[in-house]
Design goal:
This protein has a six-stranded mixed β-sheet with strand order 12-13-11-14-15-16, with helices on both faces. A five-stranded mixed β-sheet has the order 5-1-10-7-8, with no helix packed on it. By secondary structure, it is an alpha/beta fold.
Length: 319
């Protein structure tokens, strides 16, 4: 299950109390203050991990708390610090507070953010002052929103062959079937060669009105905001639907969604060229569209190598 939003509550640890203590022995008439400080409360830390891909875990666990610091003791002994609570999140996670203010956008592996700071340690009376209590740890409600990080996004109308294509070129294995909306969540894959590597994301099928949330809608358009270029896949075998109209509708949805999606470089691909009607439709598309079209067959592999070379060129991986 792909989950890209979540809400959680976090609480940092309380600081340990300082202690009032006086050292005495048979030779000491007046005790010397020797109370130790408490330990600091543990922090709640968000840490990016490339081994985490969705926010699914936060559907089952929504409360996180760091450990409290230990109290100080006599002989100037300091209490142990509270253990930090580490929360692992996927790359590309935005963190908002409960008022909707963006606190951070974490994208790099192992990047960290202290989201709730532990309470300070209480002071013992060894400084000749009365001992103090440890401070309370911060407590917050936060919201996560995930926007996938990939170099390339594959988009197009439902059943245009996106899943077959990403399976052919990468290590991703989405569900494939001959009906619309087989893919109901973005699919990430890595394309590897001897001297190159890039990440590709398949966006679930878009339809007219997607920017308003129609179909699977804008829930998934946000996942192509971070991509460097788009592969716009057209089903050139369509007899009932018009491939040129599909091309215009997808471009319109990108423009209406905004956030610069329509400005991203697009590689236009005509798929299913193993079918005779697709070859005829390709001739018509070339007459109507000035943009270069790359003919491929996700099923047979025809044109796939050329497409990968074009993607690598546009990513700056080949000259």
């Amino acid at each position: 299950m792909f989950i890209d939003t979540a809400r959680i509550k976090v609480k940092a640890g309380k600081g340990g109390n300082g202690v009032n203590s006086f050292y005495r022995d048979r030779l000491t008439r007046v005790g010397h203050p020797d109370g130790g400080d408490g330990g600091r409360g543990g922090n709640v830390i968000l840490r990016v991990s490339t081994n985490v891909h969705t926010l699914l875990d936060f559907q089952y666990r929504r409360h996180f708390k760091a450990k409290d610091g230990k109290n100080g003791s006599s002989k100037k002994k300091k209490g142990a610090d509270g253990t930090d609570c580490i929360i692992k999140i996927p790359p590309g996670t935005l963190i908002f507070d409960d008022t909707g203010i963006l606190l951070a956008d974490l994208t790099e592996d192992s990047e960290e953010l202290i989201i709730a700071k532990g309470g300070g340690e209480g002071k013992g009376n060894r400084s000749h002052k009365n001992a103090t209590e440890g401070g309370q740890g911060e407590e917050k409600s936060i919201r996560f929103e995930l926007k996938l990080i990939a170099d390339v996004a594959i988009l197009g109308f439902p059943n245009s062959g996106k899943s077959t294509l990403i399976t052919k070129i990468s290590n991703a294995h989405p569900r494939i079937a001959l009906y619309a909306f087989t893919t109901k969540a973005p699919v990430l894959g890595t394309v590897k060669g001897e001297d190159y590597q890039f990440r590709v994301c398949e966006v679930p099928g878009l339809i007219k009105g997607a920017h308003k949330g129609k179909g699977l809608g804008d829930l998934f358009l946000k996942h192509i905001e971070r991509t460097r270029l788009l592969v716009h896949l057209i089903d050139a075998s369509e007899e009932i639907r018009d491939p040129f109209r599909d091309y215009r509708n997808i471009n319109e949805e990108l423009k209406l969604y905004g956030k610069g999606l329509d400005k991203k470089y697009k590689i236009l691909v005509a798929n299913k060229m193993d079918l005779a009607i697709a070859k005829e439709n390709l001739k018509l598309l070339n007459k109507k569209i000035k943009h270069k079209i790359f003919p491929i067959s996700s099923k047979t592999g025809e044109g796939i190598d050329t497409l990968i070379e074009e993607i690598r060129y546009r990513l700056g991986q080949v000259k």
